[in-house]
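Fill in residues.
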């Protein structure tokens, strides 16, 4: 009898503890899977692929900033002031076009009041339309609407320690919830300038033959754009989509030049422009002719990532319609920038 009572007590206690942990995570909901943040709690924002889906589902907003690490230093406070909106920032570091589109559609499905979507289009165009980043973990149980697999969220020790417990700690310490200005912003964590750029850059002056985009490249890109950009734009004609090509530094274009990829990259950029321009609710921006930015390595921590002051400038330009690519100017833009980067004296950088 004593053994039976002990067994029942042990099993009951185990279930009680598990239920307490699960209830704590469900009520606090640090990943916003069930509800928006509770006003009396302080929520850290520190994991894009665990928290972004919940942000898109449950936060109050009417504009979205999304993209790769090229968008991590944007400040929603600046976007809100320039566009008179309430925006969220949901970057996906190293994300592919499919991942971005899935997130945008999640936001548009759950929030009918969205007016604007700001999204970068990185120059690495040739992913297959279904490519998803494979070196990071995707908590699919958060992305679906299946309540039965939520046990992986509610009874997950790592979730409790890494997400639920920090909410309790920040609340008890009187810390405010993280803002979207600070969310994923890495600006203060890195040095900028030529020394920083070249410390992460393996320079090679071996010049490979210049390649052109093949018909297969073009069709692959068009399929990617159709599935992961254009279908969504067509489905939401009342939403304005701001797309921009991020201004990589001159060292990244040096990399393209010596690897023989520069012409191919610019030809594919032309494909993107011509596919997007016919849509009235798409505005497209290019900044490769901002040579004072791309050729000044003080703006960069490596060959592609620029400081937050460039993000601020990009917002200002887009809000004013400056550097917008149109049917009237895109050919001149492509010609002048291609001539500049093809003929730049790259040896002078070293």
């Amino acid at each position: 009898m004593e053994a039976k009572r002990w067994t029942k007590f042990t099993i009951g206690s185990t279930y009680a503890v598990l239920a307490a942990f699960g209830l704590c995570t469900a009520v606090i909901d640090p990943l916003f899977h069930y509800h928006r943040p509770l006003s009396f709690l302080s929520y850290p924002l520190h994991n894009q692929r665990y928290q972004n889906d919940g942000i898109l589902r449950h936060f109050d907003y009417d504009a979205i900033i999304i993209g790769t690490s090229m968008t991590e230093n944007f400040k929603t406070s600046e976007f809100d002031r320039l566009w008179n909106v309430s925006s969220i920032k949901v970057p996906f570091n190293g994300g592919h076009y499919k991942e971005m589109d899935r997130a945008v559609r999640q936001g548009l499905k759950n929030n009918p009041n969205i007016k604007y979507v700001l999204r970068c289009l990185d120059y690495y165009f040739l992913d297959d339309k279904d490519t998803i980043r494979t070196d990071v973990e995707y908590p699919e149980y958060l992305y679906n609407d299946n309540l039965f697999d939520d046990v992986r969220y509610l009874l997950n020790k790592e979730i409790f320690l890494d997400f639920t417990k920090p909410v309790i700690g920040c609340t008890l310490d009187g810390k405010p919830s993280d803002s979207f200005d600070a969310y994923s912003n890495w600006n203060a964590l890195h040095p900028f300038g030529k020394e920083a750029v070249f410390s992460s850059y393996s320079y090679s002056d071996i010049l490979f033959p210049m390649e052109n985009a093949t018909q297969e490249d073009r069709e692959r890109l068009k399929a990617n754009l159709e599935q992961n950009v254009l279908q969504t734009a067509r489905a939401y004609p009342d939403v304005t989509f701001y797309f921009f090509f991020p201004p990589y530094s001159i060292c990244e274009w040096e990399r393209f030049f010596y690897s023989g990829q520069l012409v191919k990259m610019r030809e594919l950029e032309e494909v993107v422009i011509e596919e997007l321009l016919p849509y009235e609710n798409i505005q497209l921006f290019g900044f490769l002719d901002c040579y004072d930015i791309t050729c000044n390595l003080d703006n960069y921590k490596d060959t592609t990532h620029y400081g937050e002051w460039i993000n601020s400038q990009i917002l200002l330009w887009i809000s004013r319609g400056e550097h917008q690519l149109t049917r009237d100017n895109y050919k001149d833009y492509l010609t002048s920038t291609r001539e500049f980067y093809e003929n730049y004296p790259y040896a002078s950088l070293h």
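The two ends are 83 Å apart (CA to CA).
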